[in-house]
Amino acid sequence: MGCRLSQLDLSIEAGVSARHLSFVETGRSRPSPELILRLAEQLGMPLAERNTVLLAGGYAPAYPSHELNDPELAPVRAAVRQILDGHNPYPAALVDQHWQLVEANPAVALFTAGAEPHLLTPPINVLRLSLHPDGMARHIRNLPEWRTHLLKRLRQQAATRNDPALYELHEELRGYPGGDVAVPVRDDAVPRVVIPLRYRHGDQELSFLSTTTLFGTPLDVTVSGLAVEAFFPADPATTATLQALAKPSAGTG
Question: What region holds the HTH cro/C1-type domain (predicted)?
Answer without folding.
Answer: 5-50
